[in-house]
């Protein structure tokens, strides 16, 4: 069964370079690792701040001095 000329054109246009894909995946993994690390640091900062001040609720400022 022979592909139609239309199908042949589409298959020729979709050519992926394996090395290019691997590089893209590597870049995405590095970016994800950096975002994950930043999230981890921010989460620890919030956790440390909350443990230092038991009246502090994450995302909710109940400090009366700053409200005044």
TrEMBL record:
Region (Disordered): 45-68
Biased composition (Polar residues): 50-68
Superkingdom of the organism of origin: Bacteria
The name this protein goes by in its record: Uncharacterized protein
Species whose genome carries this gene: Algoriphagus kandeliae
């Amino acid at each position: 069964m022979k592909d139609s000329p239309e199908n042949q054109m589409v298959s020729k246009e979709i050519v992926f370079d394996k090395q290019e894909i691997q590089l893209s995946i590597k870049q995405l993994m590095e970016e994800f690792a950096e975002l994950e690390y930043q999230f981890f640091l921010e989460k620890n900062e919030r956790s440390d701040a909350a443990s230092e001040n038991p009246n502090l609720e994450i995302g909710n400022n109940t400090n009366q001095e700053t409200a005044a």
